[in-house]
Amino acid sequence: MTATATRVLVLNSGSSSVKYQLLDMTDGTRLAVGLVERIGEDTSRLAHTPLATGGDKRETEGPIADHEAALKAVAAELSADGLGLDSPQLAAIGHRVVHGGLKFTAPTVIDDAVLAEIERLVPVAPLHNPANITGIRTAQALRPDLPQVAVFDTAFHTTMPEHAARYAIDVETADAHRIRRYGFHGTSHAYVSRKTAALLGKDPADVNVIVLHLGNGASASAVAGGRCVDTSMGLTPLEGLVMGTRSGDIDPAVTFHLKRVAGMSEDDVDVLLNKRSGLIGLCGDNDMREIRRRIDEGDERARLAFDIYIHRLKKYIGAYTAVLGRVDAVVFTAGVGENAAPVRAAAVAGLEEMGLAVDTDLNAVRSGEPRLISPESARVAVAVVPTDEELEIAQQTYALVSA
């Protein structure tokens, strides 16, 4: 890597989409951001914003056959702004990889052996790892000379003790099939827990934090001294909190019951729990803004969905308070956590004996900055800290290739 190579391209490859950001790591400035969606369809769309030049967002629509075509289109957009993939200023490409198992506990330079291991984990991440692999292979073909780095969603959670990570099932069966709690959204939990410590003016090693990452996917984590000791998602991202379309925690016997009584196949149950449950299953909407609007209009189904969502949040706050023993902060992040004041207020309402409260005026403030929303007298800080997974991936990638 040359001394002038300070840029990192971050790629988040989904099954039919590619999100990307180009950052300059001298100061973390975003030079360009964009999204390619509906890959493989006639209605594919590329939205690109050249932040470095202050230009307007450019959108193009039309068929993009596959991820290779998508990344070539992204490269063309970047080149049009003088930010092309052939630039000597590009130090590396950082890839979000959802599942790294137990082997990958830190960002890793990708080679054939690493790719093979990511592929070996496909059975425990069938919705995500294949798309991540496709994005990696495509980027390698475009820039074979450039370091490609995998940053794993699961890595932050590999510090969990065995008593938190293991399920209470037959050990031989669990080990043979790699069944355990892995956790996800790790880059977000790492970034937010560290930023929360800074907000409190303390070293991460001295702070215990409960992080609530509330988006369409949602997860909670208990972070003690900068290390994850428990998290709500498990073998897959299905377990834990109520989410936009996922059920979260559920009696596993429900799946047997649906197969026996309703005649549903394994695929039917999979679709039900991952795509037709959570908020959308409870009330037909997975947008918290719409749910709150319906509640204000007296919609009882929306009210019940909201109450179930909040009840599960409270249970995890209580459980992780017990796990940590001492809690310095409860922090909300991601789309719902950062923007839905009623969710934050409801989640800590009634928990005053645990030292939790929100200040109504502070909670109502809309801001893109980390901030406290608890009264000064509160024993436990309640905070809102905007997550930045792309910056976290870029920072981890750049630190690795610089070293």
Overview of the molecule:
The protein is an alpha/beta fold and 403 residues long. The chain contains 15 helices and 14 strands. The chain has helices spanning 67-80, 112-120, 129-142, 162-165, 171-176, 186-199, 253-261, 266-275, 278-283, 288-296, 300-324, 334-339, 341-348, 360-364, 389-402; strands at residues 7-13, 18-24, 29-37, 45-49, 58-61, 90-97, 108-109, 148-152, 208-214, 218-224, 227-231, 329-333, 371-372, 381-384. Strands 5-4-3-2-1-6-8-7 form an 8-stranded mixed beta sheet, sandwiched between helices. Strands 11-10-9-12-14-13 form a 6-stranded mixed beta sheet, sandwiched between helices. β10 and β11 (227-231) form a beta hairpin. α1 packs across α3 (129-142), α10 (288-296) packs across α11 (300-324) and α11 packs across α13.
Descriptors for this entry?
eight-stranded mixed beta sheet, 403 residues, globular, 15 helices, 14 strands, six-stranded mixed beta sheet, alpha/beta
Write down the overall mean pLDDT: 94
Shape: globular
How much is the radius of gyration in Å? 21 Å
* Amino-to-carboxy terminus distance: 10 Å
Q: Which ranges are low-confidence, i.e. pLDDT below 50, for 5 or more consecutive residues? A: none
Order of helices and strands: EEEEEHEEHHEHHHEEEHHHHHEHHHEEH
Helical content, roughly?
25-40%
Derived from helix and strand composition plus strand pairing, the structural class reads: alpha/beta
Strands of the largest sheet, in order across it? 5-4-3-2-1-6-8-7
Q: Tell me what portion of residues adopts beta-strand conformation.
A: 15-25%
Number of helix segments? 15
Largest sheet: 8 strands, mixed
Question: How many β-strands, per DSSP?
Answer: 14
